[in-house]
Amino acid sequence: MRKSIDVSPNIETFFGTRDENLHVLEDGLNVNIDLRSEAVELEGTPRDIARAEQVFSDYDQLQRSGHVFNNGDLNSMLRVLVADPKATLRGLAEAGKQRSLGRRTVQPKSLNQRRYLDAIETHDMVFGIGPAGTGKTYLAVAMAISALIAKRVNRIILARPAVEAGERLGFLPGTLQEKIDPYLRPLYDALYDMLDPERVDRYLEKSVIEIAPIAFMRGRTLNDSFVILDEAQNTTSEQMKMFVTRLGFNSKAVITGDVTQIDLPSARRSGLLEAVDVLKNVQGLSFVYFDEADVVRHHLVQRIIRAYDEHKTKASEDQMNFLDKAMNGSGLVREEQEDTRDQ
User: Fold this and answer.
1) CA-to-CA distance for 308 and 131, rounded, in angstroms?
2) I need a labelling partner for 46 at 20 to 30 A (CA). Which of 34, 73, 128, 143 fits?
């Protein structure tokens, strides 16, 4: 089926750099799109054409109403839209406006990011698990700031295990706080990106926002707080149990981590991995999983993560094949030895 629809004269802006938005729409909705003089020609099934037509209609209405798509926002919305049959461009744009805070407007850039934000809004404890660059920490900090500004909580507590790849605190110069700060820098970066520096400094000075290693959480009960545990894959079993039992009244907790980047000694099991097994059936919790499709950093990051996953899968297959050959070879040797003895 083919259908021609009238569009605004500046529809070229919809297509994006090198037609990247057009490719998302064509691949996601299984339609072919051709630009004609002040019209767009669609080819596909009636159902797919109807969805594509709705996208163009929503885009035209949003532009007429003065909506401005920031860099990359339209592409991100289209990716969410094609992954969720119930989503509309207008609905996604309006949902983004509702999460306006400080100097930023938080807009989910993938379906899993949207699920993540919804889970944080509706659950008191959420686990965000996936590779680097998927927005786990940034979105959690954004939701924490939103809750603080709306006075739904009185403070924000950001925690991280002081464990990194091959380094120890004792090797770093300075006081304890100066040793700790490099491990907590990503949390500071997210805060300063969303709020004015003076406001962040004021909150930190008054302990409205507190950033500390997870070890500092022991013995505390956290009421009226939004608590975030970042890099949770580097917690021990004891640390994770301690953290998830700190939650007090009128509080939320978000635990983020990447189970492919565990820096604990090989003899220690990650507290995050254990928590997934132990808490998966506990009511009131939510687990949101991200993958390389949710990466919102440089486009190369997606390809790098995919390459590592493929390499890991191939290495596992090669190891299994080697073991199979070794076992079969041992069996053949034993059979030959038995035949020799029989002779």
Assistant:
1) 11
2) 73
